[in-house]
Amino acid sequence: MLQAESSPYIFSVLYDIIFQAPTYVIFLELSLLLLVIWIIIHKQSNGGKHLTQKQKEEIIKNWVSEPLVAEIDENHPALQNNHIVDGPIGKFITVDGIKCLNMATHNYLGLEEYPKIKENAINCIHKYGVGSCGPRGFYGTVDVHLELEERLAKFMDQEEAVVYSYAFSTVASAIPAYCKRTDIIFADECINFAIQKGIDASRSKVVYFKHNDMRDLEKKLQEQAKADQKNPKKAAKTRRFLIVEGIYMNTGEMCPLRELVELRAKYKLRLFLDETVSFGTIGKSGHGITELLCVDIKEVDLISASLENAVESIGGFCVGSHFIVEHQRLSGLGYCFSASQPPLLTQAAISALDIFEQEPRIFEQLNDVAEKVDEQFRYFTKLELKGHPLSPVKHLYLKHVDDLEESEKILRKIADECMKKGLAVVAAEYLPIEKFPPKRSLRITVNRLLTADDISNAYKIIEEVSKSIA
Amino acid sequence: MKNRKFVNSDIEPKKNGIHHTNGYRSSENIIKSKLTNEHQDNNVATDKYKSIHDSKESFEEAPLITACLTYFGFYLLMIIGYINQLFFEPKVATEKNRDGYVPLFDSFERFYLRYVYRRVKDCWNRPICSCPADTLVLKDRITPDFGWSFEFTGTTTKCLNLGSYNYLGFAQTSGPCAEDSIKSIEKYGIATCNARRELGTNALHIELEELTAKFFGVEDAIVFGMGFATNALNLPSLLSPGCLVVSDEKNHASIILGLRLSGATIKVYKHNNVKHMEKVIVDSIAYGQKNGKPWKKILIILEGVFSMEGSIVKLPQIVEIKKKYGAYIYLDEAHSIGATGSHGRGVTDFYGVDPKDIDILMGTFTKSFGSAGGYIAGSKSLINFLRANSHAHCYASSMAPAVTQQILTSMKIIMGLDGTNEGKKRIDQLARNTRYFRKRLAQIGVITYGHEDSPVVPMLVYLFSKIGAVVRTLTTRNIAVVGAGFPATPIMEGRIRFCLSAAHSKDQLDYALSVIDEIGDKLGLKYSRKPKDPNPIEY
Ligand SMILES: Cc1ncc(COP(=O)(O)O)c(C=O)c1O
After folding, report:
1. Is B413 a residue whose pLDDT tops 70?
2. What is the pLDDT averaged over residues B48-62?
3. Is A128 contained in some domain?
4. Prior bond to B487 cis, omega within 30?
5. Which residues, listed in sequence order, are joined to residue A10 by a DSSP beta bridge?
6. pLDDT surpasses 50 at B16
7. Going along B321-403, which residue ranges are E strands?
8. CATH of the domain at A321
């Protein structure tokens, strides 16, 4: 039908194009064509170098490849530290057969206590099976995904939420969906690895400022403003972003959100806030740092967070205005090109949100415990505590060792010894390719269910072990 | 709840014209099928494969007039869109409180989404409310304003599922996989709440890694919580600036992202074109890097079955090239693991290539295993290297217990370790469904792409607006399929993709084929000019 009707048009359009075009257009096109031919010819000669068949064969014969991968030493800690966890992850955790008090994994809220979550997840298998067998676009959108998105948006008092199947890919996909090659990103130098990878993927220019140092940030913004004045044309096309974490995974510190929001308005930046640690842990109802510091959530352009920490499922999400978030449904790589979250994990997140909404006292309890840990853990002989008192993630640094490798070794030994004595803690693992290698530490997580006795017990074990090793 | 006509096995296909679905077999056909069956034998020499498999792969070109019309139609859509934009205010949210900012989105992209993609937007992201098994249940939605927004009607429609990647039919709500997964939740809880290197490893992960290595017959394996992340977070540690990557032009977004993060030089070769690949490699080695230094190493990256093209990689020839020039191979078997090869071990199994000749075997558990996650298998030193350097192993959360258990149980079934021949039955059923469906489509006269043994079957409809028309029409006939158009495919090659499954019965396929035949006439999909097989296709 369509075919028969439109085919005569093609010819009339072609006729128009060829015979009614002004001469200068034809001239322009011809010169373009010549340019293309010239480029093709030039390209073939490979920048002036041209090899004969024989020379090529000679080079190929002599070329030797490096091995695929470098040989890893058998004593590499990644191959040695093979602790195996058994059973459920709660206030206690069984490591290598020893029951340990858990100050290692990120289930801050101790949702293990609520059997409803497991029950709902199991019912979900009865209804949907395990995997979703397709990306969101291709029949991988299950009604529970829509429910979770709606619930998250409502919980955070935002217009829209988008759920990813993996926390690492959430922020790492969200950043390059907005930031492009010609843009500038201002980022804190202690941002976590997933954000670093998101920034790399965007290929934008990055300016790192010192950790939580607003003076340094403002100085760099001013420098940029000066450069912009010199080249206003370019500046008019350059988008600017500010990327920070609510509570930094790598330091346990909280970002000064109020100051950041002021700078955002002053320098016309868009603010991306990663709440991997702070979502579901701080604020009266667990909404995160905006609630705690009473910052209007509309001041932040995009919030990304993990469902793997406080929510105790797998996945991640972004919330924000409809205008911003909707874009990710077609541009977030990890959203479009990966199978959607297994429905049972979505259901687990929904059930966790139920508890968040019904029992907001769990956040208060967690904050209490976090503060108690903060008080007690200040007094180690060999270790120094860092991190915000309310933060459920805290870091213990060696007081007298600065060398990365050396401290890594000692800290791993301390962690191993603690586990043998019934306390699970981990020496935070980082890859050598981190942009700014973080100072090595024992990373302590706080569980809501820890009692005063548990905390002083943990203190005793760490103090004793660290004194004997460090 | 308004349940429209169910698609179930007792629907009789319409018996018109060429649809002979009875058990009638011509002697000619028996001979033919014997011939083709021979090719499945695993021990045939490589040379023989070349000729055989090249002829099994088909990429028929569209008639010229269709090509012209497609472009024309596309430009027409754009022009109408521009006019539309001039007169009608778009019904979309705008950015608030950000006056004086540089606009966040590219204006062409925004235009494309609002005025071109919106017309067919209803064909994607359709919510379902069931397991994606042989059938699925769509949540009906309508758009009151031509695609700007959607509303649920509260009704549902049960459809035959030709859209999900459920190749071996392990997406099930009951049976051993579901039961075992439930037990694992009871034992381990929902998630591990930590990365593998930081107390995120449990016995299931170890067991899965050992089983995966055994499944492929290689030394070791490592598993990750997401297939996409397996590519995006491991390629950067395997490559560095100064390395050359020779990559198929149709490679998946996750591979491209991983390569971008790695900083290696990327050269693209034409899709599945071994000659072009060799030329790229030869020239690259001869001319070296831009700075004159020789390349550090060369990695050829390809997929087993390409998800949009339905083609199967020409592995034996590529292994030869790799050996000849000292390159390495990274093979992404997302769509081929489980779905190809007589033991379900992917394309190495399919061609009888030694898996140890493939340096890096990668794949996902999302598809044939009905779960989530990805793996990399290979030599001990490779896996040790990844344990020490992989981004995902160090920073990303480890696989959830239920998800891990689903893979373990389904993999054991595929390997026959459960003591039944259930796995073999599924593999054979999928192979049978694939051949039958593809041959019948050819007989109907539509153009399909890809290899005759590939369970991914793209049917070309070319015109952008036809993608929407076909998907919608098939939905009214209770068949769910996936459409793909620009920018996922070239402008020219809009297509409908069918994914076959071992869960499909012959009756279900016959029903789908009869509908395709019928709408093929109505919508003008029978583009093929190849001679048609006049004989009934045997199942
Ligand atoms: C070739 C290829 N690699 C990787 C992936 C990503 O896998 P997953 O869905 O498990 O994230 C896909 C998924 O579509 C794919 O087709």
Report:
1. yes
2. 65
3. yes
4. yes
5. none
6. no
7. 328-332, 360-364, 374-378
8. 3.40.640.10
* Pairwise CA distance, residues B372 & A173, whole Å: 18
Choose among B482, B429, B436, B481: nearest CA to B169: B429
The CA-atom distances, in angstroms, between B13 and each of A143, B17, B472, B499, B508 are 32, 12, 20, 20, 9
Whose Cα sits closest to atom 12 in ligand 1?
B334
CB contact under 8 A, A65 and B186: no
Distance of alpha carbon B7 from alpha carbon B478, whole angstroms: 7
* Nearby residues of B502 by Cβ (< 8 Å), 6 or more positions away: B167, B168, B169, B425, B426, B427, B429, B430, B433
pTM of the model: 0.88
Q: Has residue A292 been placed in a domain?
A: yes
| Mean predicted lDDT score pLDDT of chain B | 86
Report CB contact under 8 Å: A107, B206.
Answer: no
The mean pLDDT value for B422-449 works out to: 94
Place of tokens 């035959």: B160
User: Side chain identity at A329, as an amino acid letter?
Assistant: R
* A165 contact residues in B (CB cutoff 8 A): 226, 372
Residue A327, SS3? coil
**Closest partner CB to A337 (pick from B252, B297, B524):** B252
A323: contact with B, CB 8 A cutoff: yes
3-state SS, residue B149 = coil
> What's the domain range around A248?
114-358
Distance between CA atoms of A297 and A278, rounded to whole angstroms?
14
State the DSSP string of B65-132: HHHHHHHHHHHHHHHHHHHHHHHS--------S-TTPPPSS-HHHHHIIIIIGGGGGGGSS--B-S--
A184 pLDDT exceeds 90?
Answer: yes
Complex ipTM, two decimals? 0.88
Contact B510, B429 (CB under 8 A): no
Q: How many domains does chain A have?
A: 1
> What's the gap between Cα B369 and its chain centre?
14
The single residue listed with the structure tokens 């158009």 is B485
- pLDDT digits 0-9 by tens, B153-192: 999 999 999 999 999 999 999 999 999 999 999 999 999 9
Cα nearest neighbour of A241 on chain B: B104
Residue A297 is classified by DSSP as G
Q: How far apart are CA B147 and CA B170, in angstroms?
A: 34
Contacts of B90 (CB under 8 A, 6+ apart): B114, B148
Average pLDDT, chain A: 90
Query: Are A325 and A160 in contact, with CB atoms under 8 Å apart?
Result: yes
Q: Are A189 and A210 in contact (CB under 8 A)?
A: yes
Distance CA A452, CA B377 (A): 47
According to the model, what pLDDT value does residue B10 have?
34
pLDDT value at position A435?
A: 86
Tokens 């269709």 locate to: B66
Q: Which residue from B164, B252, B333 has its CB within 8 A of the most atoms of ligand 1, so it is best to mutate?
A: B252
With respect to residue A87, please indicate whether it lies within any of the assigned structural domains.
Answer: no
